[in-house]
Amino acid sequence: MASLLYRLGRFSARRAWLVIVAWVVVLGLAGGAFALFGGTLTSAVSIPGTATQKVSDELSEKFPAASGGRGTVVFTTTDDSAFTDEQKTAIGDLLTKSESLDDVKATTNPFDTQQQLDDSAQQIVDGRAQIADATAQLDAGQAQLDAAKAQVTAGQAQLDAAKAQAAGAPAAVQAQLAAQQAQIDAGTAQIATQQSTLDDGRTELETQSATLEQGSDLLDLASAIRQVSTDGTTAVGGIQFDKSLNLVPAEAKEAIVDAMNDADIDGVTVEVSNDIAASIPEILGPGEIGGVIFAAVVLFIMLGTLIGASLPLINAIIGVGVGVLASLALSGTITMLSVTPVLGVMLGLAVGIDYSLFILNRHRTQLKNGVPLAESIGLANGTSGNAVVFAGSTVLIALLALNLTGIPFLGLMGTVGAICVFVAILIAITLTPAVLSLVGGKILTKKARARIGKAENRAKVPTKPMSTVRAAITVVAGVAVLLIIAIPALSMRLGLPAGSSEPVDSSAYKAYKLVDDKFGAGVNGPLIVVADLDEAVTDDTLIAEQVRIGTILKAENDVVAIAPIGASDDDMLLAFQVVPEGGPTSESTEQLVRDLRGLDIDGVSELGVAGNASGNIDVSEKLADALPLYLLVVVGLSLIILIFVFRSILVPLTATLGFVLSLFASFGGITAVFQWGWLAPVFGVHDPGPILSFLPILVVGILFGLAMDYQLFLVSGMREAYAHGTPARLAVQRGLHAGRTVVIAAALIMISVFGGFMFSNSVMIQSIGLGLALGVLLDAFVVRLLIIPAVMHLLGESAWWMPKWLDRILPNVDVEGASLERSHPTHEADDIEEPKPEPVPV
Fold first, then answer.
1. I want to staple 376 with a disulfide (CB 3.0 to 4.6 A). Which of 130, 219, 371, 556 is the partner?
2. Over 50: is that where the pLDDT of 241 sits?
């Protein structure tokens, strides 16, 4: 590989303009592909196969009226007074017009809905009064019948007595008594008919009363749900889509936002929830640009020339352009999360600058030592370029391994990141040599060019190792610091951003806060509960079954209200809206989802929970379940790779343990800032909450690759010195001395690039930026530059121990290209102009 890269570097140097033009053409093609095939991004995170998705699919199949994503629009008066009739009419007209927009199935007028709820409550009151009046009339009728029955009974007794006395009386008397008996019998029959009518009326009244009370029970279950606030100043309108939120095109959501922003209702402010108006993060904002500027300053301080400082930046920007534009070209056919291209920019800038810097720095060192320009470019590409390819390969493997999690959006993020890193590697080993050949000796300062080839220009090497006491103290102190920083990670909660995570000045954040203040936190994250019945309900039993199941659901902790949605077309499914006490990201809501799914209700074969809050919980849990396996794969991979590279058992173990320490310390810092709220104002965290669910697994993949970069560039120098006969402890010091400057600069550049993203307008980007910046800071400066050298000093010769049988079967991986240096001690100049010493002014 080293020889191949050496030849590639020489070729790129000789055909510099060809290489440069080729990359410009590639950049143009990537831009053209994006323009032709690029689509829109989404902010909705979903994972196929989750419990929430299964419920959504069931609703779509059996209950189309209740299926589809839902969003809300919040209307509030500007002067905090109750809505006027004109304002109510204007809001209703606006929502009705919105039904004609693409992908909108229906809208809910909050005032009509609230009026229906109020009317229903009044109808219950009126119905009870009517039933009471009818009951009173029945009771009065019953009293009259009872009196008539008493009279008939008394008449019958008198007639029976008369019959007894008239025994043997003339026929005329007997006929008179028979006529009286007939009158009494007729009266009795009439009373019986009236009693039957009265009983039927009472039965019907009891049925009506039972139905009324069941309706009252349903209203009581939903009594805490309002569409208009009690003070009449705020109303929540509903937008129902014809498909799941994550499938609704961004253009459709933007059309709704535009329609609401253009409403211009006098005295009314319109805010759209994050389900519809979630912000798409800027790919490159002021913070990110500031990070690049800081990286430029670091490069200038290290290299001393504007040309040297600008070269890695230009290469990285070209690489980012190619990688991100090519990736975005896929967004027209693949659903791509809005954070995906931002991750590509983040990684592409960071590794692009660093990889070019590694080759450039090696080239500068060789030039100072008098190596001819063309030979220096080839050797730098064959040695440091070889290390870049190897280090970059570890990053690629870690990113592509995200596809093993089985989570589509995360795998796509890893793939896009890998594309950007791959392009950065290609840029480093082709475009960097090409530009270096055009720059020539100007890559060095005038002072350095004047001392080319002189002894004083050669780097000094340490002659004694560090103190063993110092090494022991360094290990103990470094590990203690990392463990302390990692403590908050023990309480890390995972989740997805809600409206409270949106920028403070955004419509989504204002809508979230208005609903929270006027209606309660749970209204921002209602749940949809679906009950699969053992037997179909009938029209007569529907309300009773809704009350029965709804009452059981309402009895759960942290449930504020239950609203029945209806029954499926086959009457085998009942759907309910459940409003929790807490918001969509609260611990109580998470527990409620688990409690509801665990309920065992007679007559219900399965109880499913859907909605944005449960979807977030499912995504977070699946990601959390995937993290241990992914971490195991990555850690195991790091051990195998490092055993190949360093031909040692203990060096890979210490490197991997160091990575794990810095990883969990990074998690601790993220938790402290974004979940606990420490230093929240500094990082712009206005509403602390759960950590982004896919952040840990993403940081594992990226930080692993970067940690192995620094491990390779530092420890390979130690290995090289040891292999050339330097005592083990002294080799540690010499390797550290040789590589620390470029590693410090590279780490500062990565920290500045990642840190710039901490000031993004998206909490997702903020948390990823902080996690990576803090991870690189701790891993580079605490683990790689302090703990690892100290540990290797304490291990001494045993650091390089390896079983002989394993040493025999392992291939020789020459990461630093030492064999190339031995075979190319010097090279005659070719047609590329060599740097010439300039006279030093007297």
1. 371
2. yes
